[in-house]
Amino acid sequence: MRLDAGRVKKLRIVLWTLLVATVFSFLGLSLLSASNYYEVAYAKLTVDVAADVNMTASNLASDGGVTDGTVFHYAVSVNITNPSRRTIVLQFTKYQGILRDYILEDLAGGTTGASVTMFVTDFIFSTDNGTIAGNTVKEIRLSWELSNASNPAFFVPAKTIMDYAKSKKGLSWDEVEIAHVFVFMMKITDIPSDYNGPNSGYLIELPVIQKRVVVTQPGGPP
Amino acid sequence: MKITRATVTKALKIIAFSLVIGLAVGYFSFYITMPSVAIPTTKNPSLEVVGLTLFLLGVLVGALSDDLESTVIESLAGLILGALIGYLLFISPTFSPALDLPFAENYIFYTVRSAMPVLLLGGVVLFIGGFLGTILGEHMAIRSAKSPFDGDQTASAK
After folding, report:
1. Residue among B89, B100, B114 whose CB faces A34 most closely
2. Could you give the angle at which helices A5-38 and B47-64 cross, rounded to 10 degrees?
3. Cβ neighbours of B99 in A, within 8 Å
4. Is a pLDDT exceeding 70 seen at residue A30?
5. What is the value of pTM for the model shown?
6. Cβ contacts of residue A35 below 8 Å, gap of 6+?
7. Please, which residues 65-84 of chain B have a Cβ atom closer than 8 Å to chain A?
8. Which of the two residues, A110 and B152, has the higher pLDDT score?
9. Of B34, B64, B98, which has the smallest distance from its Cβ to A42's Cβ?
10. A195: which residues sit within 8 A by CB, 6+ positions away?
């Protein structure tokens, strides 16, 4: 079937238009993805956490609200044990800004490849002290265990961290001067079948992507 | 070798089509690798959608390319460019000085491994689509170099 000259011209215009539209579509999608990726990795998290950083002791005790006053020193880290693979990656599948009540949501959702779906089931708190640029650092580390539990949702109530820090570690929020946020964006791609949490004999590896934010002023990113 | 205007035009078209394919493959390799931050965001990236889209792109490029040889070159170059673009997308946050991120080897390993399904699938469907597109272009005389005027030009030359 050979078309006449007029139809060929129209067809060529349509095809070239489609090609140009394809270019702009993929260019747009790529840029949007990169922007979103960066936002997840840094910008959105920074802003939200910075907002969450402002918490007064009274509000912490009551409902975990976010107001003004004391800087809440907050850190998140993820530990997964697996010496055989350095590519274990835990990926934030969703990050919502409802930080008044929840810090992270649905942390370990989808997986890829021949993998086991891992979900967060427990939290482990620890604290550490130190100095950065002459400023006292009191850091609360929040880590969590992974297992094959069927609950895909992951919520870390801010109040849980606050209550822990106040009651168990005796932290005074007024003493905290620097806020740290450590976020490991990782994606679980391969977990040994006999993995059963941190006590299963596998040792930690990880930070594939480590985000570190230092907040030196209440309410604002650096 | 004499460089003619036609040669330059053909080379530019190959480069342009390679970039188009590379852009698509790069985006899809990132989309498969990091579906939760790609746009559109999803938890379950669809290889079927990726394959179908790349196939249609292959047909489109094949129909507009000069010949089958060009289509093959464009597909190969597009795949290589796609791997590179996907990798750049994946490491893009590391370009920010505000982020304290380890670099390179993990990303390369991770990206290559994760994006491999797209690259393999893309290679197959792009070649098939490009081949079909080339046949389609020949059959319908879409290309300017082989337009319906060919017959008239031949006749007038005689």
Report:
1. B89
2. 140
3. 41-42, 211-212
4. yes
5. 0.53
6. none
7. none
8. B152
9. B98
10. A81, A82, A116, A146, A202
